[in-house]
Amino acid sequence: MMIYLESLGCCRNQVDSEVMLGRLEAAGHGIVHDPSLAEVIIVNTCGFISAASSEAVDIILAMAGYKKEGKCQRLVVTGCMTERFKDDDLVSELPEVDAFLGTGACDRIVDVVEDGSGKTLSLFPDTCAREMQGLPLPRITTLDHLAHVKISEGCNRHCTYCIIPQLRGIQRSRSIEEVVAEGEALVRQGVREIVLVGENTSDYGVDLEPAGDLSVLLTTLAERIASIAPEAWIRLLYTHPSSLSREMIEAVAKLDNVCTYFDVPIQHASSRMLRRMGRNYTREDLYDLFAFIRKVDPDAALRTTLITGFPGETETDFQEMLDFVKEIRFDQLGVFAYSDADDLKSHSLKDHVPEETGEIRRDAIMAAQALISEEINEKYLDRTVTVLVEENPDEGIYLGRTGFQAPEVDGFTFVYGSGLEIGTFVRVKINDTHEYDISGEIA
Ligand code: SF4
Q1: pLDDT in tens, 178-225
Q2: Which of 93, 168, 276, 414 has the smallest CB count inside 10 Å?
Q3: 102 contacts 130 by C-beta, under 8 angstroms
Q4: Is 68 inside a domain boundary?
Q5: Which atom of ligand 1 lies at the shortest distance from residue 158's CA?
Q6: Does residue 331 sit in the same domain as residue 403?
Q7: Which domain holds residue 170?
Q8: CB 155 within 8 A of CB 200
């Protein structure tokens, strides 16, 4: 059967989509990139915040149109939105859908696609049911030169604004051998940037017997990848401030093919708010952490994410966060206004902040960050940096990223030149810098 998959949400969900496509292709099905040509359409949904769930429903209904207009005979919906609303009557709310799969069932995708019972299927095994050992290879990566690799699934923490532990279960880490084997296979097939992901990558291995260690995983993976493709990059995302250890920081800084890029979502910088969020660290801990990173590598790139308008946030709390952003000067930063929902612990907290206030505070942080980012980018003027070439949008111009620019969330490097190959590295002399992007010519 010809299959089309629409992948929504984060890169962790995208990995699930790529693994599902790998399983389907291995079972003899074909993959198409146009839903009008598909006999089976799969929508892998995101349900992290209500806006994501609404977007998922819109796309499901749009895809259902192909059951009338196209060749589609079966519409399958998977991922976090189905998991979040599994107790609702999804079958009657979305009668167009032939099968609903929870996050614990995405590895049953071949059975579901090949199911001929004509009945609407609903598969919602325990979110922890998904075995994270023995994930199949090859998967169908979205890009040839870049791949996200899950090192774990689920989370043992209980941040009050977050639904992920309910959607993805408790932490289950993959073995170092498995992650390294997947990394090697991907680099052999041409991938030149491996991005390690999980809900909390710095919690890696806490559930393994004996416990696994992220710095050991990084060191082993870096050595093995370097022996295959010395130029290939490894990037680590989603570390947690309270488990990102000094050993991990030193490992990242020491390993040549690991980007000295620290993605540390802090969510806030007022200790009072961090307590209400259930984050288990304080403003002082954050100062120590970033000071240590900068001591180990003054050129390290720092990325973080923040939430504004969290229940109970006062003007003083917000000012503490804004001052912290101006003081630490993150290279990359994302900020979101708090999104309430009645299945979140934070919903029952007192003193909710009006949505508009959350948005005004979000915009104020982004305005401050735009100035900081522009000033930081100026330090690259007349410097030569290594760029992974990703796109060729027009003649004589390429889009790429440096080690301090992560995929999908950070700025780009514009490269002026010709004859470059997508998925290769070039040295670029930076001759212009902008708010979020930089540009230059082949050195
Ligand atoms: S650590 Fe991250 S994934 Fe886990 S509960 Fe907190 S925000 Fe959610």
Answers
A1: 999 999 999 999 999 999 999 999 999 999 888 888 999 999 999 999
A2: 93
A3: no
A4: yes
A5: 5
A6: no
A7: 146-378
A8: yes
Can you say how many angstroms the Cα of residue 249 is from the centroid of all Cα atoms in its chain?
20
Q: Which residue in this structure is represented by tokens 């780009």?
A: 412
If asked whether residues 216 and 313 sit together in one domain, one would say yes
DSSP 239: -
Mark whether 279 and 153 lie in a shared domain.
yes
- Look at the chain and report how many structural domains it folds into: 3
Question: Does 175 map to a domain?
Answer: yes
**The pTM of the whole model exceeds 0.90:** yes
Residue 186 CA to residue 93 CA, distance in Å, equals 40
The domain boundary residue, chosen from 129, 162, 179? 129
CA of 161 relative to ligand 1 center, distance in Å: 8
SS3 103: helix
| Residue nearest to ligand 1 atom 8, measured at CA | 162
- Give Cβ neighbours of residue 361 (< 8 Å, ≥ 6 apart): 308, 309, 313, 318, 337
Structure tokens at 243: 């488990």
Are 158 and 32 part of one and the same domain? no
The answer to whether residue 96 sits within a structural domain is yes
Centroid of ligand 1 to alpha carbon of 253 (angstroms): 25
CATH number at residue 433: 2.40.50.140
123 alpha carbon – ligand 1 mean position (Å): 25
Ligand 1 atom having least distance to the Cα of 168 = 3
Residues having CB closer than 6 A to ligand 1 are 155, 157-159, 162, 164-165, 199-200, 240
pLDDT reported for residue 136: 62
Q: How far is the centre of ligand 1, averaged over its atoms, from the C-alpha of 145 (Å)? A: 29
pLDDT digits (tens, 9 = 90+) for 373-427: 999 999 999 999 999 999 999 999 999 999 999 999 999 999 999 999 999 999 9
Q: Whose CA is nearest to atom 6 of ligand 1?
A: 159
Q: Whose CA is nearest to atom 3 of ligand 1?
A: 199
Distance, in Å, from the CA atom of 42 to the CA atom of 5, rounded to the nearest integer, reads 5
Tell me if 138 is assigned to some domain: no
User: Could you identify the atom of ligand 1 that is nearest to the CA of residue 267?
Assistant: 7
133 Cα–ligand 1 center, Å: 22
Cβ neighbours of 92 (radius 10 Å): 8
The number of the ligand 1 atom at minimal distance from the alpha carbon of 279 is: 6
User: DSSP code of 39?
Assistant: S
